[in-house]
UniProtKB/TrEMBL annotation:
Gene Ontology BP terms: lysine biosynthetic process
Organism encoding this protein: Ignisphaera aggregans
Key word Repeat present: no
A matching Pfam family: LysX_preATP_grasp
Stated name of the protein: Lysine biosynthesis protein LysX
PROSITE patterns from the UniProt entry: ATP_GRASP
Length: 286
């Protein structure tokens, strides 16, 4: 029986095209599903002609990704990643809560909802500190504060952003991480690739902020850390961002449940898109 794969997307990027092409090359039945052009029944009360063994979730918007995944799951479709994994990874506080509960090392972090407690957090952590949104990607709306005055300015600016999540102040220690971080890519129960993201001009190391990617060696500690992280967040295809803490060693900074991988393939030569589709094919048979 030929596996039927859907690729759910909003914008057809290189990643989605590569997944589609490799699925065709493997002889699978594959369909590109533009999430803005379809409806998804909740439960079995509305008719749908679509039936898939696996849906690869590739929406850019976290809101669209989570809610379309919930709808797909309500009619029995297997979605990679699951709504649970997407919900956890989308909320950075939820992510750190799950990781910390499972004894996975994370940056020292505290949460506050007003200025004065935020200043107390900074005094405890020591300046500089990093103020992050609880959701979002590509390094957006992340700020460093080097003293009380800068922290006041950052938090005041956040009050003018019309988003309820800006009422939550997530404040972390600033980690001196050798001008780089490590993006570790997990597919199923395997760490398939890793790269250093290096930025000597800015402390934020996301690729969207101008970093350069080179291959990273996957040592046993990185592998075990990434696989344990994937397990506790219920993830199957994940991009896990790891910092090299000068005192604590490896710490998990964030988890991405709908990771891009074009730069990872360019840096490592590893066919990550093929690994993902082969994994989808393998679970379609279960």
């Amino acid at each position: 029986m030929i596996a039927r794969i859907a690729i759910a997307y909003e914008v057809l990027r290189w990643e989605e095209k590569s997944l589609y092409n490799v699925a065709q090359d493997l002889g699978l039945e594959v369909e590109l599903v533009h999430l803005h052009n379809v409806y998804i029944p909740m439960g079995y009360y509305l008719h749908t002609n679509s039936s898939y063994d696996v849906v690869l979730q590739r929406a850019i918007s976290h809101t669209v990704a989570l809610n379309s995944t919930l709808a797909f799951e309500s009619i029995g479709f297997k979605v990679v990643n699951s709504s649970t994994a997407i919900a956890i990874a989308t909320n950075k506080i939820w992510t750190l809560k799950i990781l910390a509960q499972n004894k996975i090392p994370v940056p020292r972090t505290a949460v506050s909802f007003d200025l004065e407690p935020s200043l107390r957090i900074a005094q405890l952590l020591g300046y500089p500190v990093v103020v992050k949104p609880i959701d979002g990607s590509w390094g957006r709306l992340i700020a460093m504060a080097r003293d009380d005055e800068e922290l006041r300015s950052v938090l005041e600016h956040r009050t003018y952003i019309p988003n309820p999540s800006m009422k939550v102040n997530m404040i972390q220690e600033f980690i001196k991480k050798f001008d780089r971080d490590i993006r570790v890519f997990v597919v199923g129960n395997e760490v398939v690739a890793a790269m250093y993201r290096i930025n000597r001009d800015h402390w934020i190391t996301n690729m969207a902020r101008g970093s350069v990617a080179i291959p990273a060696k996957i040592d046993k500690e990185i592998e075990e850390l990434a696989l344990k992280t994937a397990k506790v967040v219920n993830g199957e295809v994940l991009g896990i961002d790891v910092f090299e803490h000068q005192e604590q060693g490896y710490v998990v900074n964030e988890v991405n449940a709908i990771p891009e991988f074009k730069n990872l393939i360019s840096a490592t030569g590893i066919p990550v898109h093929l690994k993902i589709v082969e994994y989808a094919k393998s679970i379609a048979k279960r």
